[in-house]
Amino acid sequence: MSNKWNLAQVPAQPGRVAVVTGANIGLGYETALELARKDLTVMLACRNVSKAEAAKARIVQAYPSAKVECLPLDLSSLRSVREFAADFRQQHEKLDLLINNAGIMMPPQAVSADGFELQLATNYLGHFALTGLLLPLLVATPGSRVVSVSSLSYKWAEIDFADLQAKKGYSRRKAYGQSKRACLVFAYELQRRLAAAGYGTQSVAAHPGLAKTNLDQYFPALIRPLGSLFLQPAAQGALPLLHAALAPTIQGGEFIGPDGFQQMRGQPVRVDSDGNSKDPRVAARLWQASEELTKCLYLNGAGDN
Length: 305
Ligand SMILES: NC(=O)c1ccc[n+]([C@@H]2O[C@H](COP(=O)([O-])OP(=O)(O)OC[C@H]3O[C@@H](n4cnc5c(N)ncnc54)[C@H](OP(=O)(O)O)[C@@H]3O)[C@@H](O)[C@H]2O)c1
Known about the structure:
Elements: E1 17-21, H1 26-37, E2 41-46, H2 49-62, E3 67-72, H3 78-91, E4 97-100, H4 118-139, E5 145-149, H5 172-196, E6 202-206, H6 224-230, H7 234-237, H8 239-246, E7 255-258, E8 268-271, H9 275-278, H10 280-294
Parallel strand pairs: 1-2, 1-4, 2-3, 4-5, 5-6, 6-7
Antiparallel strand pairs: 7-8
Helix pairs in contact: 3-4, 4-5, 4-10, 5-10
Bound molecules: NADP nicotinamide-adenine-dinucleotide phosphate.
């Protein structure tokens, strides 16, 4: 029998509560489906309510006893993030798992409701604010974890502090890479800050390798079908996220990805990342910029956001 981690090893976890962002489709949906199967209460945090309700119906059809809820969340709007967090905190007194999954890849240049470059806003800044706003619940919940979904494409760019919002020139690829590096830097730094403050909540990063989802929607129509030939299915791509969320051996500050060739597919294992992503000086600059942009202050007054 393989000694690799798999979902069959994970016991049912009734009473635990998870939030999954971007849970209506792709990796977020597959993650929510498996969490619901393990008897967690799962909140589908999605920007489109009817898509979220359709995903909920699919999960309940698969597992009729699933406890699935929906609340609107548009990560490209800080107002929406604040409304989601306030509504969630009204409805729930605890939060065991926050899966920061939602994302967009390489759209034409656009800005968010708050004037931020859209990929940075959606993939990173919205999740930075969301995590900060939900932190009081997380730190009050024993065994809680935050999973930040990064990507192999974090290697495409470092964080351009001189032009964070790509005002001097927009490269779709660079902006996506920057946003995914920011998610990784954030995951490591959140763990450092939680540990320094004496909280037991763990912050873990994960990446799915390459999986066939709707993420390639901005790719040319002729190229998209090629993906189906070599990308792993979304359910397989979700395994590193689920491993990061559920495996008891996980330590805060770890990065989980697939074990196959170039980490593009396979079973979830601990992986490493480059020195820049782990550099506390980069993290400190990013954190300061993120607090200034989102007006969301962590830990010191985390409950007051
Ligand atoms: N697929 C891969 O190979 C791969 C590789 C590396 C990393 N990732 C990462 O994995 C995560 C999930 O992506 P995926 O592959 O599952 O893509 P996907 O199928 O396109 O799903 C993305 C999800 O994010 C949601 N979303 C987009 N913008 C949002 C916003 N402003 N507010 C709230 N939700 C928003 C989408 O909602 P709508 O359905 O309403 O658009 C959808 O639910 C992303 O962070 C991505 O960067 C994926």
